[in-house]
Please model this.
Amino acid sequence: MKKIIIFGIVLLLFLPLVFGAKVVKTTQNEINLGETLDVRISIYNDNPEEREFQIKEQLSKAAEFVSPSVPDKYISSLNIPYFDRKVTIPPGIVGTFIYRIKPLGLGIITLVSTEVTDLKDGSQSSSNSVDIIVKCIPNGVCESNENYLFCNADCPSGSADNFCDLENDGKCDPDCTTEDVDCTKIIQIEQRKALLFVKKNLYFIFGSLVGALAIVLLLISLGIKRKKSLQDVVAGFKSI
Ligand SMILES: [Ca+2]
Ligand SMILES: [Ca+2]
Model:
C-alpha cells in the first residue's frame, strides 16, 4: 500500500510538469473478495493561493460503499452513484479525498477518471482511471462463480470452469475448442488413431477378400476335376 501511495505522490509531482494535470487516483490493483479497499484521490493545488475544488467521483455498481456509506448523488437517468465533494487546498499542497469500498463479486472493477473543477477559475482536470482485480479466497473448491482467471488456486488450468484459459500445459481445457493448442494436439492424435484403425481394417478386409477368392477358385478347380473324372468313368462304361 505504501508503494502505491509513494507512486501516486511521485506521479502527482511530475504530471503537472508534463501534462498540466493535477489529479491522481490510487488504490490497490488486486484484492480478495470480502476485503475492503481505500481509493485515494490526490489533488495538487499549483496556484499561488488557496483554492476550493469540486470533486466528482463516479462510483462502480460492482462494489458497496463502506465509507462514506452512501453516495452523495445519482446520475438520474442511469442511476449511477457518485460522490460530489468540495475540498479547500492551500497553495502548493496536495489535498486528498479518500473513500472505502467493498467489491460485491469476482472480476475486474473499473473506477473511471475523477473530474475535478477549480471553483475559482472553472478549470477542469481529470485523473487516471483504475482497474482492480477481485480474486477469490481459496477454499479448495472450484465454485460456479469462480474460474482460472480470478481463482486459479481453486480452478487450475484445464478446469471445467466456463473459462477457456489457453494455457499450453498439456491439458485440453474443456471450455476451449480449437483455440487451446493442447486440444488441437489431442484432436490430431485422435485423427491419427482413427486413420490407423481404418488402415488396419482395410488390410483385414483386403486379406479376407483375397482368402475367400482363393477358396472359391480352389473349389471351382476341384469341381472341374471331379466332373472330368465322372465323365471319364461314364466314357469307360460306354466303351465296354
Ligand atoms: Ca472456491
Ligand atoms: Ca477452463
